[in-house]
Every structure is written in C-alpha cells, then in structure tokens.
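Input record, target 12 of the design panel.
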C-alpha cells in the first residue's frame, strides 16, 4: 500500500512536471504569437513623408516601406494610396506594389470602395481592382460620403451612388457631402437648403453649420463676435469671442481681442485662462499649442502634456505626431519621446494611418 502510494505520488510528480512544461510551452507560444501580432500590427501604421523633393512611405519604426521616388503622392485610404510617376497617377498597396498602374491624369483617395480618377478632361470612378465603375463623363467628381458622391456636368450638380447610378438629378448649382443621411445643396438663386437620400427637401434649423462642421454645437456671429448654440438653436454662450476653434469634449480654444488663447467649455465657463500664442485642433485627446515661439501639446483636461520645444507640431494620428526640429520633421509618441528622428521635409500629409 505504501509502495503504491509512492508510485502514485511519483507518477503525480511526473505528470505535474510534464504539465508545467506543457504550460510553459503554451505560455511562450502565446508570448511569441502576441509579439508577432503586435509587430505585424505596428507595420500597418504607415505615413507619407517627403525627402529630397520626392515622396515615400515609412512605418512607425521609421523604416521605408516605399523609398522616396514619387513626384506626388497622398496618404493611404482603405488600404491604397494614390501616387504619381511620369506625370500619371496610379495606386500602391501597403507593400509598395503598384496594384493599379499609373495611367490616369489625376487620382483621388478611395472612399466606400471607389476612387475618382481623371482621364483627359473628364472624371469617372474605379474600384480597387482598377475596373471602371463610372465612365469618364463628369466635369467634376468628389469623394463618396455616406454612400453618395457629388458630381457635376455642364454646370449642374447632383449625386450618384456607389453603383454609379444618378440618384439625385443634376439640377443644383452646388452640392456638398452627405452626412447622417442629409446633404446640403444650393439652387440657382443661391439659396442653401438640405435634401435626404431620395432628394426630398429636409427642413431642420442650423443644419448648415452642423453638417459642414460635423459637430454637436455651432458658432454664430453677432456684431463681429462669436457665440455658441446647440443643434436646436438654443444659445449656450453669448457672442463675446473673437476666435473659437472646433469643439472637443465640449471644450474649445477661445480668444478675446488681441489676447492669447484660453480654453472654454460650451457654456462659456473658462477651463484655462489665456496662455497660448497659437493653437491647433484636438486629436486623440491632445492639441498642439504655441508658447513663446515653441510648440508643445496640451491635454483637454490636464493642461500641458508635452512641454513646448518644437519648431512645428502636427496633430496626433494613431498615437504618433509629426514635430519639427532643426528644420526637419520627425515623430513623437504621446509622452513626447522622439520615436522617428527628424529627417523629413515638411508636408501636410505627415501623419500615420492604419492600413489593413
């Protein structure tokens, strides 16, 4: 009986040891998988950069995905980026391969699976395979928004859907992006009003500002001063500001007279007294601010998050922001750590996007 207990105990020890080894293997395999997933994901963050007069693309480690070889290029949208070579435009994927050959006189981003491209004097749309979905018949085209795109022909404007069908006739002087099922249109008399996706007039107050600015609150002018209304038209802040930025978390930068910028909430309560010489918009909780000729970043609640020390500063995108040092642009994270050295020329598209 004692021998059996010892044998059983010995077997239990072997089993436990074997199980521990197995668990360790699973643990390390999980770590390896997590490492690979994390690093693979990181490589999908790509930014457009300019160096020596040419455009290329880097990942978030500062390594080139595409060497600077293009005369013109745009950032990625829906996994593809428009690029120009030999005066013609095409599209590359995240590996740098030209998946749609350079053959167009101009090309725009992909939205809702379609991109506007120009051949000669006319515009059409292609899909991600390069197939022509909408023929080259329009004088002007725009990006899809909310499933519709504004198009113009012979001085008249209307909307098409992603199948290329004209769903709202070409009868307006001007049409703008649809947003939440409503689009602003202008008739020949210059009157601006709104239509739904069936082309029927929609009568709602203050839609002009809400749709174009895409925010919950609007700014209004009275006696050359700016105030804030909500989407029902109720005045939240009396007009007393000379400058207001787009709101973020119910807060906006404000300026009165020739003073510096401060931070105010939607009802006019001062969150931060005037302190900044210039400001940028909020993104990912942080906004670029200028203090005594140097740029840093401020948090919408906590104040200065990254001390001012840069010659220029762009918005954060996917955790990184372009900053200018010694005349060149590099990238910092949200702690202010320089992740990618400052070695690139200035360009308005210097921000990271996720590429799936």
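The sequence produced for target 12 reads:
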């Amino acid at each position: 009986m004692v021998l059996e207990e010892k044998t059983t105990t010995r077997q239990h020890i072997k089993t436990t040891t074997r199980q521990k080894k197995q668990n360790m293997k699973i643990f390390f395999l999980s770590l390896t998988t997590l490492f690979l997933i994390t690093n693979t994901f990181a490589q999908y963050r790509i930014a457009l950069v300019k160096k020596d007069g040419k455009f290329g693309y880097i990942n978030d480690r500062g390594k080139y995905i595409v060497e600077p070889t293009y005369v013109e290029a745009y950032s990625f949208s829906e996994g593809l980026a428009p690029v120009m070579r030999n005066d013609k435009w095409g599209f590359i994927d995240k590996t740098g391969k030209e998946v749609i050959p350079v053959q167009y006189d101009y090309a725009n981003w992909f939205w809702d699976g379609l991109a506007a491209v120009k051949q000669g004097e006319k515009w059409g749309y292609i899909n991600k395979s390069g197939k022509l979905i909408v023929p080259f018949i329009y004088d002007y085209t725009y990006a899809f928004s909310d499933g519709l795109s504004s198009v113009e022909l012979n001085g008249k404007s209307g909307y098409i859907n992603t199948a290329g069908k004209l769903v709202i006739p070409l009868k307006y002087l001007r049409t703008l992006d649809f947003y939440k099922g409503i689009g602003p249109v202008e008739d020949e008399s210059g009157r601006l009003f709104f239509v739904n996706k069936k082309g029927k007039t929609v009568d709602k107050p203050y839609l002009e500002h809400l749709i174009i600015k895409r925010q919950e609150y609007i700014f209004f002018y009275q006696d050359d001063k700016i105030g804030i209304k909500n989407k029902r038209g109720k005045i939240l802040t009396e007009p007393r500001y000379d400058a207001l930025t787009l709101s973020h978390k119910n807060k906006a930068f404000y300026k009165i007279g020739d003073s510096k910028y401060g931070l105010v909430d939607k009802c006019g309560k001062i969150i931060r007294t005037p302190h900044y010489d210039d400001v940028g918009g909020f993104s990912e909780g942080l906004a670029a601010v200028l203090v005594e000729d140097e740029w840093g970043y401020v948090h919408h609640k906590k104040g200065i998050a990254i001390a001012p020390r840069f010659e220029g500063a762009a918005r954060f995108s996917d955790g990184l922001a372009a900053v200018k040092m010694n005349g060149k642009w590099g990238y910092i994270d949200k702690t202010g750590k320089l992740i990618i050295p400052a070695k690139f020329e200035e360009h308005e598209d210097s921000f990271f996007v996720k590429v799936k």
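The first strand starts at residue 45 and ends at 51.
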